[in-house]
Batch of 4 targets.
Target 1
Amino acid sequence: MIFDASSFLFSFISDIKFKNRGIIYYSVWTEGVVMLKSELNSKNKETTKPINPPFVFRDPDSPKKIYGSACNLQELAEILPYIPYFSIEYHLYRVESDDTISSDLGLWIRYIVGLNSLSDEIEKLGASVEGLELKDELVNIINSYSLQL
C-alpha cells in the first residue's frame, strides 16, 4: 500500500493521545479529519487528490502493535479475516470512561467511506454480538457490501 503525505498526516492525527485521570486514551478524530479533508480538497480542485485516511486495526492493550489497515471497503474486506477478533471488538464497540459508546470502524465507514447504512448496521452488530461470532458476521456484512460496489 502506498501512502502519500496527506494519508500519513491523517493516520498520525487519528492516533493522538488524550490523558484522563492518569490513563492515556487513543482517539480517532473522524469529524476533524472529515473537515480537514473537505478543506484540503476545496483549495485546488484541479490538482488535489481525494484523501482517504486508512482505518488501522490496533491491539487494544498495545496501541503501537498494528494488525492491519485499509483505505477502502475492498481492502477492509480483504484484511478482516486476518484481524484478531479482540481488535475488531475494540474498534467496533466499546464503552468509554464517560459511559459513551465508541465505534471507530462505524465512524470511519460513515464519514470516510460514506456509507451510512453500512455504518448503522455495523454499530448495531457491535452492540449485540461478541467474539468470533462478531468477526464472522462483520466479515459477511462487509463482503456483501463490497460486492455491491
Note: Residues 5-148 form one domain.
Target 2
Amino acid sequence: MVKFPSDKEYDKLLPRNNNPYKWGYQEDEYINFESQKSRSHESAQALLDLMTGISTEAWMAMWMNGTEYVLWEAALGKHQEWGGAVIEQETREMLRNLSGSCGGWWIYHHGERFLSLEEWQNLYELILTC
C-alpha cells in the first residue's frame, strides 16, 4: 500500500511553486500558468480533464487523495479499477499518450500542479520507497 505524502512532505519533495496566481481565486489563470510548463498546452489541459474526470467518476471528487499515483499506475497497466470506476484499456492508453505528448503529469498540492515527466518520475520513485 502506498502512503501518500502529507502537505508538509510534499513541500520538501517538490520544486518550489512559482505560480503567481492564487488557486481557488484565480483558478483559470492558475491552471493556464501550470499548463504553459508543458510541451503542449492542449495535451496538458486534456490530461488534467481526463484525470479529474476519472476521479469524479470513481469518487465523486475532482481530485481524490492519491489520484496522481493511481492513475499513473493505471497508465502503466497496474490498475484497472479504482473506487467506483473501471479504467478501460482505451482510457489507460489516453493517459499514457497525453502524458507523453505534454511531457508531464499532474499532481495536486495546494491546487493542481504540472510536473515534467522527470520531476514526476523522481517524486513517484521517492513515494514508492517511503
Note: The CA atoms of residues 14 and 31 lie 17 Å apart.
Target 3
Amino acid sequence: MAKKQEAEKHESKKDETKGAMTADCIFCKIVDGKIPSKKFYEDNTVIAFLDINPAAFAHSLVVPKLHFKTIVDGTPDQVGKTFIGVKNVTEHMKTRLKCDGFNILINQGREAGQIIEHFHIHVVPRFKSDNIRFIPPDHKASDAELDQAFNKLK
C-alpha cells in the first residue's frame, strides 16, 4: 500500500509541472528521497533542508517539489506556493532558532550565481552577533543611469 501511495505522489508531481522531474537534477533526487538531506520541513509543495555550503548557521534551501529552472519558468501557482513555503519555513526557523532576522535570496541563471538549475530560495537566518554582511557595493546611481533603466522597464 505504501509503495502505491508513493508512486501516486510521484506521478502527481509530474502532472502538475511543465515537464517531468529531471533524472539528473540533484534537488529532484533529494525530493524523491534518493539522496539524503537534512530536511526539516515539508508540505505538499516544498521541502526545506540545510545547505551543505552555508553562508551562516542553519542556512537552508526551500525547494519546490516540482522541477522548474527559474522563477519565470514556474507557473504563478507554483511560484506562489513556493513563497508560502518560504513564509512557513521562516516562521519555523524564527521559533526554533530565535534569530534576529533573515536574508532571503534567489539566484536566477548562471550569471547570477545559480548553480543547481532547479528553482530554489535561500533562507539565511541572521543573528546580531554573526558579523555577516550581504551589502551591495557602495554605488549611488546617477540620474542618467536611473533614467536609462526606467526607460527600458516602463
Note: The first strand starts at residue 39 and ends at 42.
Target 4
Amino acid sequence: MRVVVVAFYPKVWSDTTPATPGRDRRLPRARILRRRPEFLAIRREGGTQSGTQLKLNWRKEPRKSRRMAIVVPKACGNAVVRNRIKRWVREGWRNLQAELAPGSDSVWIARPSAGKAGSEILRLEMIRLYQRAGLWMDAA
C-alpha cells in the first residue's frame, strides 16, 4: 500500500511580493485589477497610448506595487485565441514589470490583430507603449 503525504503551505501575497516567486508563475491577486471603478478611474485620470496590436490605459499612483489588467474583446477571435492573447500579455508584463515605474496601473486592451502577432511582437509593443507613456524606467 502506498501512502502519499502532501504538505500544504498557504501562499501569502503582499504588494512587495515579486510576480515570479520561485517556481510559482501566477500573478498575485494584489497585482491584478478586477473592479469596474478601478478601470474607470484609470481611464478618467490616466493616459492612453495606442499601438497596432494593443492599447494601453495607464495611471501612476503613489505606492510601490504595479498592477495590471487585460481586456480581450470577442472581436479578437474565439476563446482559444483570446486566452492565448491573455497568456502572451501576462507573460510579457511579468517579465517587464521590473523595468516599470513603481505605482503604475496598466490596462491592456487587445486589438483583433493581436491574435496573429505572437508573443515576442506583443512584448516589443508593450515596451514601446510603456516608453511612450513615460512608465519605462529609462524614459522616466
Note: Confidence is low (pLDDT under 50) at residues 7-15.
